[in-house]
């Protein structure tokens, strides 16, 4: 059973009609809607990159936000590459080129794309938590924020989260 059909066979009924409709829905959502929404996300994140990567901005929060925007871009690109490409092949599975992509190329792409996507997602979530904690300390404990929320600690935290994310997702 090919990797691409695994979820469809588990989630859809056994009949051919329901299976074909499931493939069409998969194409509509992953092949059309996901790239359109992802394009808007990429445009928004590119604008964020332009603003956040100006050299005059040196706040510790900006370093977290830079990491967040880069992980967001990676997640969007990974979703488009990983999901949209396989959904296109589901419309014409009898086509030799589509069949070759589904059974030969995609299984080799899936593991690295999944690893990178899950690592970026893990990093993104924990960067959001780090920003929240950093803002909490800066607002609720302003006198200790001077010593805790500095550039050195920010870089250590970003590096630690990245290393933990990679280590956590290696066994997957």
UniProtKB/TrEMBL annotation:
<dbReference type="InterPro" id="IPR052954">
    <property type="entry name" value="GPCR-Ligand_Int"/>
</dbReference>
<feature type="transmembrane region" description="Helical">
    <location>
        <begin position="63"/>
        <end position="89"/>
    </location>
</feature>
<feature type="domain" description="G-protein coupled receptors family 1 profile">
    <location>
        <begin position="44"/>
        <end position="172"/>
    </location>
</feature>
<feature type="transmembrane region" description="Helical">
    <location>
        <begin position="109"/>
        <end position="133"/>
    </location>
</feature>
<dbReference type="InterPro" id="IPR000276">
    <property type="entry name" value="GPCR_Rhodpsn"/>
</dbReference>
<dbReference type="GO" id="GO:0016020">
    <property type="term" value="C:membrane"/>
</dbReference>
<dbReference type="Pfam" id="PF00001">
    <property type="entry name" value="7tm_1"/>
</dbReference>
<feature type="transmembrane region" description="Helical">
    <location>
        <begin position="154"/>
        <end position="171"/>
    </location>
</feature>
<dbReference type="GO" id="GO:0004930">
    <property type="term" value="F:G protein-coupled receptor activity"/>
</dbReference>
<keyword id="KW-0812">Transmembrane</keyword>
<dbReference type="InterPro" id="IPR017452">
    <property type="entry name" value="GPCR_Rhodpsn_7TM"/>
</dbReference>
<keyword id="KW-1133">Transmembrane helix</keyword>
<feature type="transmembrane region" description="Helical">
    <location>
        <begin position="27"/>
        <end position="51"/>
    </location>
</feature>
<keyword id="KW-0472">Membrane</keyword>
<protein>
    <recommendedName>
        <fullName>G-protein coupled receptors family 1 profile domain-containing protein</fullName>
    </recommendedName>
</protein>
């Amino acid at each position: 059973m090919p990797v691409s059909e695994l979820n469809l066979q588990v989630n859809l009924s056994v009949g051919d009609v329901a299976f074909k409709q499931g493939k069409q829905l998969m194409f509509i959502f992953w092949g059309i809607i996901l790239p359109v929404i992802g394009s808007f996300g990429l445009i928004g994140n590119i604008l964020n990159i332009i603003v956040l990567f100006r050299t005059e901005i040196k706040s510790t929060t900006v370093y977290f936000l830079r990491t967040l925007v880069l992980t967001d871009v990676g997640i969007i690109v990974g979703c488009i590459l990983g999901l949209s490409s396989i959904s296109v092949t589901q419309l014409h599975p009898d086509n030799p080129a589509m069949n070759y992509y589904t059974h030969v190329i995609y299984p080799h792409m899936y593991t690295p794309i999944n690893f990178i996507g899950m690592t970026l997602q893990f990093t993104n979530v924990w960067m959001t938590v780090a920003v929240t904690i950093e803002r909490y300390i800066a607002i609720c404990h302003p006198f200790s924020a001077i010593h805790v929320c500095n550039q050195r600690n920010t870089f250590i935290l970003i590096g630690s989260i990245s290393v933990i994310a990679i280590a956590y997702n290696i066994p997957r």
